[in-house]
Specification:
Elements: E1 4-7, H1 16-38, H2 43-56, H3 63-76, H4 81-96, H5 106-117, E2 121-125, H6 130-138, E3 149-153, H7 163-173, E4 180-184, H8 187-195, E5 199-203, E6 216-217, H9 220-229
The structure holds the ligand CSCCC(=O)C(=O)COP(=O)(O)O and magnesium ion.
């Protein structure tokens, strides 16, 4: 019996275009100024720059070169934990100034509330940092959705295509794998979750549903129908 829903964000609760056409360009536009202003005075920024330097093999004292690395990583959609942490800090400013709201599909907002009210426990697992996750749901088009969530996981538990990450999440939740339903739009992530025993539904929000041996849903209403049919 499913007791926990673990959901991805981009392509699942929220549109890919919001992440790629609003959030990433905002980060790219403000990254240089943000890093130059905060790299000495803000320990959280400085610590992430240490990690950027280490992973990229860049001289830690060369701030221009570190900014170049970060901008290249944004263009490549790299899921580096340090980039994701810096993006989360940057987006806070954008949300708070009202530059944008977090996009959450209406069906997702609706069923997150219904599932929460039915007693299911809801968690997020996204490559975006926990801070970024709380922001997209906290400043969403549908209002503050964070009260529906019991917790958040990001790439600090591992990459989303790595089975080990899902094992770590199960350990932290302290539950049996088959009580967890993982929702994602990326098949490799679903395979990793299934390999440790989690149940999955593949969200295919655009276009025709593919033939697949795993459950596929176009939106959260269809996920709910699959849940009830189990
Ligand atoms: C938390 S909103 C920003 C999402 C993000 O930065 C990202 O890389 C999307 O990753 P996901 O694992 O949600 O597909
Ligand atoms: Mg996704």
């Amino acid at each position: 019996m499913i007791r926990i829903i673990l959901t991805d964000i981009e392509g699942t609760t929220s549109s890919i275009s919001f992440v790629h056409e609003v959030l990433f360009p905002y980060a790219a536009e403000h990254m240089a100024e943000f890093v130059r202003e905060g790299h000495q005075s803000t320990p959280e920024i400085s610590a992430q720059l240490d990690a950027v330097a280490e992973v990229s093999g860049t001289d830690r004292s060369d701030i221009d070169a570190l900014i170049e690395v970060l901008l290249k990583w944004i263009q490549e959609d790299r899921k580096e934990t340090s980039l994701k942490a810096l993006q989360g800090m940057l987006w806070q400013q954008g949300y708070q100034e009202g530059a944008f709201h977090g996009h959450v599909y209406a069906d997702a907002a609706d069923y997150l509330q219904r599932w929460h009210d039915r007693g299911l426990r809801l968690f997020v697992y996204s490559s975006g940092s926990v801070k970024a996750q709380k922001l997209i749901f906290g400043f969403s088009d549908a209002g503050d959705l964070t009260p529906f969530f019991s917790g958040y996981f990001d790439t600090r538990v591992g990459g989303k295509k790595q089975p080990e990450a899902y094992r770590t999440i199960l350990g932290e939740l302290g539950v049996e794998a088959e009580t967890v339903l993982f929702l994602s739009d990326v098949e490799a992530e679903l395979e990793a979750a299934e390999s440790v025993g989690m149940k999955t539904v593949w969200l295919v929000r655009e276009g025709k549903k593919p033939d697949s041996s795993r459950p596929v849903a176009a939106d959260f209403a269809e996920v709910d129908a699959l849940l009830r049919a189990r």
